Amino acid sequence: MTALSQEEILQSTRTVVQGLEALKEEHESIKGTLVNSIQGLSADESALIEEKALIVEKNLDMLRLGIEEAQVMMALAGHLQTVEAEKQKLKAQVRRLCQENAWLRDELNSTQQKLQSSGQANNRSSIRMSHAVTSRVFDLCEDLLSWFVQVAQLEEEKKHLEYINSIKKYDSDQQESERTMEQSDSRSNDHTLQDLGFGPEEDEEISAYRVLVEEWDGMIDRISSVVLLKCYCSLPPEIGVME
Description:
Blueprint: H1 6-37, H2 43-180, H3 201-234, H4 237-242
């Protein structure tokens, strides 16, 4: 005997219910006929009719019970079908959610890889930038050293001119002292400017040296300002960012 499917069972149950409904109507008709035929009969015949009516009533109760059970089975089958449909719907949703979850995982992994690659690229760029800044700082240090050497040379020249100026001042004081001594020994002239190797033609040169000293003082101040300004302007923008 082959197993019946759920749909075949439901179809058979509907057929049985229809048959039971027909039997029920037939028994109700028989019962009505028996009840109507009791009138005008003798006591024995009435008792026999009542007994038949009781049997018919009992059969009606069994038919009603069978019909109700069949209806319950059909309702239960319909409910099971609804539950099964909902179950299949939930399974489809679960599959869709699993697919979306797998897609989101792939997207997350791809995003993480991109972030890691971007971080590595940024690190390499930062290293290159740091090397460039370091090289630029070294170049600036070399420029500063060169400027400082020039400033030191100017300072030495300034000191030399100041020394010459002091000699000139000493010679001038000596000449003033000699003018007050009109009859002093002619050998005192050995300490004059001419005896030290400076003739009248050197006066203009020493005056020019004084002017140069003043100009070089201003030049040294300007060079210092220019050096600082050049160092600040030559710094690459990356240094300000790193700070």
